[in-house]
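G.,

No rush on this.
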Amino acid sequence: MSNTQKRFKKTILAIVVFFILLNLFIINQAYHFTHFYEQGSVKTISEQTDGFWGQMKVALFGLKLQKLYGSTPDSPFVNVKLKTKEGLILDAWYFKVPNAKGTIAIFHGHGSEKSANLSQSDEFNEMGYSTFLVDFRAHGQSEGNTCTVGYRESEDVKLVYDYLKVNKETNVILYGISMGAATITRAVAEYNLKPTKIILEMPFSSLPNTVEGKMRVTGVFAKPLAGLLTFWGGIINGFWAFDMKPNEYVKKITCPVLLQWGKKDQGVTEAEINDLFKNISSTKELVVYEKSGHQNLCENEPDKWEENVGNFLDSIK
């Protein structure tokens, strides 16, 4: 065998080894992005990232995230339990307002939990609406550890919607943030839900795009790796992740929609928001928050949020 042939074989072997190692790295990252651990079962984030070797380990194998539980609200509420078809119990809070105009179901983002949206709930209650806050599966007080970033969580939205309908609520409004907003779009398309209105804040346009957005925020080379992360995230959890497309799901929405987004959002791009808005065929409104990024718009720009959301709820029938 000539030297040229030997060099060629070594090059091919190096490429194969690199490809295998890259995919092992991606599989670990994808697993930890879609799984949450019970409180106390893994080290804290500061402990995992402590020192050079801790940071290297997290960079190579991913960060193990614990479920967040939040705090119990001071206002009185009804604790509701919902059961998924897989037998998981979802934990929810139902805040009832006397002579309510309707009920607004609130859905949190990836890695968050229901108490993170108590500020929105309080504002909606002040506006005269009851609110229903739920922990998605694998989040907060709900059971499960696997998150499919909106794909299977769409059943959670349906369970909330059905619960409110069974309890004679005729004016059901769906409100979601980030993953919660994206999940609403899939639930409406998948289960033909007919809410009165929908408020979407910072939804991603597709699962590959949100993976790329999260990598972009952390400074990782997003373009070449986002597709692999999406692929393995779906394979690990038994679904085709590339089918998670809110920009397609919104085409099936028939009720009025308020779409909101922060101008400084590094995770969800303006192009994604414009794509989503363009594909909504029902009555729609887009509000851009100049001072905000991918964060709680209600808390960051409260006056603007209250005005726009209040006008949307009151004026569009």
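When you get to it, here's the other one too:
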Amino acid sequence: MDWHDLAYFVCLVEQQTLTACAEHLGVQHSTVSRRIESLEQALSLTLFDRLGKRYILTQEGELLYAQAAEVQKEIITFERMAINQNAMQGSVIISAPPVLANEVLIPELPAFRERYPDIVLHVRGDVHFSDLYRKEADIALRLSRPTQDDLLIRTISHVNYGFFAHRDYIEHTPIEQWQLIEFQANARLFNWLQNLIHKHSYPVIFSSNDLYVTYSSVCQKLGIAILPYFLAAKNPALLPINPVDRAVMIMHEIATTASHAYIDKQAIPLVQSQPLYVVMHPDVRRSARVRVVAEWLGSVFGK
């Protein structure tokens, strides 16, 4: 039996509906339902009678409720004592896309270490999604929203993308010979690029599924590519491009994600913004050091 199921049992007794219990615990109502079913199966008992949306204790449930409430209090006390004993020391594993880990997190680590010298961060540059259920990471940074409804998900920032080319490439390549560099690893960005290729007959000169390789190829003056603003900013020679009108963009044009060009009266966005999510499993949110790291990530990417 999972002892954490008792918290859902006690809460549902007090709140009486899945929705009210879910709101109280900060989870989805399906999570509460699944936890209660798991507890009933583990005990081989029916704990509730379902009357419409209300959950009413059965006779067996009434006999167990008082004891469950006491056990839950003891578990909470035990966990708080453990957290207080080891609140701001130990390790926290962060899973993040490599480019975000290298370009955004690493420069901020000295300040974090100065403030929290006893918390050791393990930063994993993962191109795949770490399995939070198997504790492959405590916190994950993700550019696509997870579909699991029992994970804790918060939007902490947005990553803006645009088309960029090297200044020398623009100056020495005739407009009619401009070519694209294809980035394949992000489906949304890939579809954005394909829309441009098909409707504007752009040739592809180079293709990669690695963002650093794509960035390097732009720096080597191979062509035009989609890059995140924070990465393109590393090289002052990279210029924002309007590939539809085949022109260099100016600052006020890229200051808004609403910038568009038009092909056959159809709007083509010149800037795209993707949400950046911080994701945790509910079981780790009780850890003070994990919460501290999650808040730090929010401040780093919220700058």
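The longest helix spans residues 59-85. The CA atoms of residues 30 and 149 lie 8 Å apart.

Enjoy the weekend,
O.
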